Amino acid sequence: MITKGMHFLKNYVGIDVGGTSIKYGLVNQDGKMIEQNSSPTAKQKQQILTDLTSIVTDYQKNGQAIAGIGVSMPGVIESDGILTTAGAIKCMYGVNLKEELEQHTGIKTTIENDANAAAIAEQWLGAAQDLHNYLGIVLGTGVGGALVINDQVYRGAHARSGEFGWMLLDDQHDELEDGSMNFQTATVIGLLRIYNIKAQANLTDAREVFDRADNGDKIAQPVLHNYFRKLAQAILNLVVCFDPAKVVVGGGISVNPTFQAGLQEAYNELQEEHASVRDLN
Questions:
Q1: Is 89 helix (H, G, I), strand (E, B) or coil?
Q2: CATH class in words for 127-273
Q3: Which of 43, 49, 230 is nearest to 139 (CA)?
Q4: CATH homologous superfamily for 11-112?
Q5: What are phi and psi of 107, to 5 degrees?
Q6: Strand partners, 21
Q7: Binning pLDDT at 50, 70 and 90, where does residue 168 land?
Q8: How many whole angstroms separate alpha carbon 187 and alpha carbon 141?
Q9: H/E element holding 234?
């Protein structure tokens, strides 16, 4: 029986395409996650497109009415859905993902840079509620970023605003990009890469670096210390440039209590050492 005034929530498919995995789920218009899952990110363009289409059609086969699709991707994404770049997912460069998914599913699709999507979500339901000017940083395979000014994501003249990962933290490397925020502070191509080089290891999960540091590993401890210092340096640079009310750090690594404490301590130390910003809140 249908009662007058009943409120039916629309359901949407949300998909986050990362360098190593695709996370997806069914979410309603109030932001409640109904179902969620993940799968590895394929290496070939056509397989990725097939996998993304299958995520949506599988929900439809299960009787779900889908009102829209939202996809977050790393890289430079134009307003028409063209992936100018796609971070570490090189095979997707130049693909009009909006057009591809709409053709295969018949459902309106929005494509957004992953860090921008995270920043929008933080203001809606997360740590940036009631804030109007803030920064978002996402640590994963690489580093993503978003700049929100007066409640709007600032995209820049070429949709490249927020590519904080390209920012240089030092130039004391044979390859200049090795000194970038990506290669110094990302979870995978930063922390894991640096530890594996120094320890001649082949770790694939950053949590193992934290565990080894906790257990007294003489390589993991200084690697983590330097990692926090570099990340704090990058954040301080952004803070003095944009004067945000808050910097929201996301990505899987951000829920680790040791990460949270280590980064905060490094930032506080750096601010204390910097005479010009020492007394700023």
A1: coil
A2: alpha beta
A3: 230
A4: ATPase, nucleotide binding domain (3.30.420.40)
A5: -115, 135
A6: 40
A7: very high
A8: 6
A9: helix 220-242
